[in-house]
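Hello,

Our lab assistant flagged a job as stuck in the queue for most of the afternoon. It eventually completed. Since we weren't sure the result was trustworthy after the delay, we are filing this so someone can double-check. Below is the sequence as submitted and the structure that was eventually returned. Let us know if re-running is recommended.
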Amino acid sequence: MAGSPRHTAGRGFSLVEIMVVIAVVSVLAAITLPVFVSARETSRRATCLVNLRNISLAFAMYMDDWDGCFPNTGDPYLWMGRRWRWPLEPYLGASLVRDATDPDDPLLSSRSPSYLLCPSDPFATDKWDATSYGYSAAFYHTPAQIRTMTTEDLWKYDRFPCITQRESAVAFPSQKVLVAEWLTNHDTEKLSWWEWGGARNYLFVDGHGAYLPADRIIPAGNDLPDPNLTVGGVGGKDVD
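-- returned structure --
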């Protein structure tokens, strides 16, 4: 009928138009995804530094109670994250609990503080009881011992007695690493203290933390970026 409204069926998208939309979305995703991933990792890295600051407070309280002495249990493998956490247990809060099935095993816990785990660490939860950070063996061996120790002495042999070191013996508190990430958790490739490359978060004796590439670390006695075997031991420095 003349003058009546005319109904027009809606036209669907053609295949070409759909392909154009998909292509645009793909380009936008390719642009924004790396930015999102980078922002997420930056946030995780910052959380990791906060973890180290909490750990620094625990060490400070421990040394206040132990006349300026660094933790030493007589365990040559104390540098490992699962082991050094136990002498600090009173200062880590009630969140650290022994495993009821084997309370004498330092490698196990029924609950461990969340700040002992780097949020970017892909291995620690399953392999190391949710501990991502190592404690420098230079704080429970003398500089003379450190001078003659090898990498293998840290994890394989038990040739050197553990000797307590004092905070007063630290010559460069802002340059000597106390605790650090064991792996380069914030890089694609996961490298240990015993490999060059990548970067990790470090906690220094004076309490400050820093994210540094391995090539900023002064080569240790084993010619690696290893804060365990710092040249000069507790009296040496890991960064210039």
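-- support follow-up --
The delay was a queue issue, not a problem with the job. The result is valid. The longest helix spans residues 15-65. The two ends are 91 Å apart (CA to CA).
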